[in-house]
Amino acid sequence: MPGTAGRVIKCRAAVAWEAGKPLVIEEVEVAPPQANEVRLKILFTALCHTDVYFWEAKGQTPLFPRIFGHEAGGIVESVGEGVTELQPGDHVLPVFTGECKECRHCKSEESNMCDLLRINTDRGVMINDGKTRFSKNGQPIYHFVGTSTFSEYTVVHAGCVAKINPKAPLDKVCILSCGICTGLGATINVAKPKKDSSIAIFGLGAVGLAAAEGARISGAARIIGVDLNPSRFEEAKKFGVNEFVNPNDYDKPVQEVIAEMTNGGVDRSVECTGSIQAMISAFECVHDGWGVAVLVGVPNKDDAFKTHPVNFLNEKTLKGTFYGNYKPRTDIPGVVEKYMNKELELEKFITHSVPFSEINKAFEYMLQGKSIRCIIRMED
């Protein structure tokens, strides 16, 4: 890596040239980092459902050619002007949302929604100068959520980089930079289930399983998994889920089923599907007086739901969360330490691994519902 600072680097990247078409491994040029930016050498990256969603370009503004990828682990190759907290050689996780440490959100203990670096899925350029750092034969290639980790090298705003313990295995902890922390934090930081309490998890994909892992770590006694796909139930047992409900098995609303199972409702619920009906069920299935429901799943933009106001008057609480309420730079290093201390298990989330040259297989596994997380090894 020494000797590359300040120069354009040529490397391999998986480029999405158009929506829904297989990614193409290309040689691209990666410009040096500008002010408040760092250039990272990516060693491991993972595929998240958000990458697939924007690659398919269903329901949002398509932006191509683009380099996707936002769950990853790597090493700082060089830093731009003004970067003081990171240096070449640091082990890091790039994160799709940032922490400038200066705005009202960053200075608040209650928020992680940085004004400057909050996720922006439409922006394909760096905020410093409105340009891309990727190109091929002079043609700009757009960034994705400020990370673009499906490239051997990438440029990221320094505020979107968590510096972590260099002893942590990057092929495991890389999955903490998106979905796992989203679900884990929704439970631990927002729902906050008490020891021996009950909790319902709606949706048993990667985020829902991470929410269940959070419930397991918190000592919840009854962890009820709710999913329309019964094939997910066996896998979910590894994450502490000990009861299962398939709404299709009943001729009444699932919130009524759960209330009957739990003597009036669960203490906590976490919704990880984005379905309006699941959101209503998650709220209405919590116990009056103390029940808390947390929404994690992202709905369609025109969605709305209704519930009777008396649910609130009966002291049920409805909350939402973004990235599990973790501040990327401040909190993620501590989550890595939970893994290092064996409090948090990550291996069970990783179901597949492929070399970078076979990245399209990772998309196939996810589209077929076979993978929770597929790790992509940048060095074949």
Detailed description of the structure:
Residues 206-337 form the Alcohol dehydrogenase-like C-terminal domain. Pfam families: ADH_N (PF08240), ADH_zinc_N (PF00107). It comes from Ziziphus jujuba. InterPro entries: ADH-like_C, ADH-like_N, ADH_Zn_CS, GroES-like_sf, NAD(P)-bd_dom_sf. The protein is an alpha/beta fold and 380 residues long. It has 11 helices and 17 strands. The chain has helices spanning 49-56, 104-107, 170-173, 179-191, 206-218, 233-236, 254-261, 276-284, 310-313, 328-340, 359-367, and strands spanning 9-15, 24-30, 37-46, 71-79, 91-94, 134-136, 139-141, 153-157, 161-163, 198-202, 222-226, 243-245, 268-271, 292-295, 317-320, 350-355, 373-377. α9 (310-313) links the parallel β14 (292-295) and β15 (317-320). α4 crosses α5. The longest helix is centred in the middle third of the chain and has 13 residues, at 179-191. The radius of gyration is 21 Å and the shape is globular.
Q: What letter string, H or E per element, gives the SSE order?
A: EEEHEEHEEEEHHEHEHEHEHEHEHEHE
Tell me, briefly, the overall form: globular
Mean pLDDT, to the nearest integer, reads: 96
Kindly report how far apart the N and C termini lie.
18 Å
**Structural class determined from secondary elements:** alpha/beta
- Total helices: the number is 11
Helix content: 10-25%
Radius of gyration in whole Å, from Cα? 21 Å
Q: Can you summarize the main beta sheet?
A: 7 strands, mixed
Strand fraction: 15-25%
Low-confidence segments, given as residue ranges, are none
Number of strands: 17
Domain Alcohol dehydrogenase-like C-terminal: 206-337
Subunit structure: Homodimer.
Cofactor: Zn(2+)
Keywords: Metal-binding, Oxidoreductase, Zinc
